[in-house]
Amino acid sequence: MSMPSSPHLRALCLLLASVVLGGCSSMRSTSDRLFGLITPYRVEVVQGNVVTQEMAAAVKPGMTRAQVRDTLGSPLLADIFHADRWDYVFTIRRPGAAYQQRRVTVLFDGDTMKSFEADELPSERDFVSSIDTKSTKGAKVPTLALNDEQLKALPMPAKGSIPEPNSAPQGPARDYPPLEATP
């Protein structure tokens, strides 16, 4: 792109460009909306293993590596230079929910678990409620059964159109052999 030859026109273009670029930094408001109308897509990022209080309570010193893996899952970090250390790191960035990050470290002595170190871990119920962005609190829960008045309002089928529970099956005679041999 070539610059205009007039010094006044050049200065005007530079001023206009600086105003436009300066406005780009102030487009983002506190509600994360672009120009107050458009909400950009925010990807949900979940990495690592969720370790809860219930899972941590199930892990005891003296367990084998296989037992720890069965309880907590595969570690996110298993370093060949620190073969006796497994790190479980969990992070979640979810639109509408608070950012979370936790670390759990399991130390081994050979094939036996020696110690377990962790940040403050939530219970399963607390974890689910912390990431729930579509909460049903206050929402009307639909009824799953009909009351007597609704049952009476249903159209009744004609008598004889519903077979009796213990009656022989009705229908055309089959013209193919049965799938299983009958004794």
TrEMBL record:
The gene is bamE. Residues 48-116 form the Outer membrane protein assembly factor BamE domain. Part of the outer membrane protein assembly complex, which is involved in assembly and insertion of beta-barrel proteins into the outer membrane. This is Outer membrane protein assembly factor BamE. Its main location: membrane. Keywords: Cell outer membrane, Membrane, Signal. Belongs to the BamE family. It comes from Methylibium petroleiphilum (strain ATCC BAA-1232 / LMG 22953 / PM1). GO terms for molecular function: protein-macromolecule adaptor activity. Residues 131-183 are annotated as: Disordered.
